[in-house]
Amino acid sequence: MKVTGVIPILLLFLINGYVNCQNFEYNNNVHFEDGNFSLTVVFQVEATYNSVTGDVCANGVTNDTANLMCQNTSNLQAVGFVTTDYSTFVFNSVAYSIDCSSGIDTCPGTQVSNCDSYGGLLAVKCVIPIPECYSQSVVMLSNPVNTTIPSGGYYVTGHPVTCSSSGNYVPICNSVNIGPLEIIAICAYTIIGSGGFNGAPSGVTVPPPTLRSSDTVSNQFSCSGSTYSNLNCSGNSIISSCPNGYATVTCQKVCDEDYYATLFNSQTATIDGISYTIGIPQFCITGTYARICNDGTNSPELGLALCNSAGFLFGELLSSNSSLAETLYRGSPQGILYLNRFLCSGHNCQGDSSSGFASNPQCFNGQLETIVRCSNIKSYAVVIGVTVGVLVAFVVTVLIVVILVVVFMVIRNKRTHRHDGLLTINDDIYID
């Protein structure tokens, strides 16, 4: 796509500290090249010495100087060239042959009658990248590679890039600590998912990122928030390199959204004649496995609700701080999403306004796993046990009531006999 037009430009060019303005018409072309939009601007340059303004000759002006001119007048990401592909015009009665080898702020010039013998009139072409991103909270994988897995899911692996203040993507250095929230943000923009992990799957070669500028990187990047709506990320951009290379992140789609909650690494145990199943509740959100972090922000009734969702009738939470927790956590898949702050009312549990993603590192290494002990609804021993328990409790209650009544009657009879004796022996002290 190429669009051309004629637009006036007010060109500011600094020569010996003097600011000169010149209205000039130039051709601008918006064209699509290598997947990135850019604006091409061509203009002539004039200089002023001792209050005398003249055109500038091309002789002695290099592409490096043209590049600085473009960056000073438009965008730091602009690239400039000396060009002869466009028509030039004489605007002044004199011209200058200049030398900007020491920088464009101090360019000594020699006045000449015209530029015919000095390389012709100087024309500079600037290729200005139109911003490819507008928000510094945007972060994604650049030039990712897809890998299918036997289960039918897939991985998307690449180098994360963030939006710089100049409107282009810059790679994030491997020295940056990319935690759970950062991975959620990266994967949400990349595959509309929320699960992933640092590094690449075994045997996967990660291609280099697609970048406009290879000398700008981000060595500071972090995210805050607990839900998609309030997740906010920010990073820096500096002209430098990444000594240890770029960061690598893998996003994943490894489970079905219709996946029912199960108990991961479940174990069975019989206690007081009742069969229990113990495990870590696990379900699927946006294509990645999810669990609830037992960080003290959830209601105690959550155990019952989680057991119900896994197909059990009864259930309770167990302590995360046990050798059993370590056993159950072993073999956990990569890229698990952890949630927290669930409030319960009976069997109904839901998140409050602050519910969302957990970021405590202990949630991700097995130290704060939510472990439940559930009784199977198909186990009649559970139902019978509960029924018998209720009957026994009823019988015991009746017996206690009968005993209390008998004791009360005995005590009452004894007190009556003693009172009658007093009436018989001491009529003087009878109190009605």
From TrEMBL:
Positions of transmembrane segments: 380-411
Signal peptide range in chain numbering: 1-21
Keywords carried by this UniProt record: Membrane, Signal, Transmembrane, Transmembrane helix
Protein name per Swiss-Prot or TrEMBL: SRCR domain-containing protein
